[in-house]
Design a protein that fits this description.
Elements lengths: L1 H24 L4 E2 H11 L8 H13 L3 E6 L7 E6 L1 H25 L5
Length: about 120
């Protein structure tokens, strides 16, 4: 049973990570380093992505058709891959945001932190 709990926790974390990445791409295309720094700054340093976990996740989201990457070269900078949401990714983001909001509201009700 312990293994099953571990798998559930990993799935929950992966789903949360996907939601975070899709959310920061909602406004504009961004490159990987920018994505990780934005998540870290918006979470006041609580949430951090290391390269070893961020780039495989970006590649998986791209393979699933939720984001699209494009190499961009700018003067005096190294080439960077910018990611943007696809239409399918935008639909998924909206669905995940609704699910997350429902989850947070339910947790608040159970914990008694949400007042009716």
């Amino acid at each position: 049973m312990g293994n099953n709990n571990m798998e559930s926790e990993l799935e929950w974390k992966r789903g949360s990570a996907e939601l975070l990445i899709l959310s920061v791409l909602e406004g504009q295309p961004r490159h990987g380093y920018d994505i990780s720094k934005l998540i870290e700054s918006r979470s006041l340093g609580v949430l951090k992505f290391h390269v070893t976990s961020l780039y495989p996740l970006l590649h998986r989201l791209e393979a699933q058709g939720w984001i699209e990457g494009k190499w961009v070269e700018k003067a005096d900078q190294r080439r960077r891959r910018y990611y943007r949401l696809t239409a399918e990714g935008r639909r998924l983001l909206e669905s995940k945001q609704r699910s997350w909001n429902d989850f947070v509201a339910a947790m608040g009700r159970v914990m008694g932190t949400e007042h009716a």
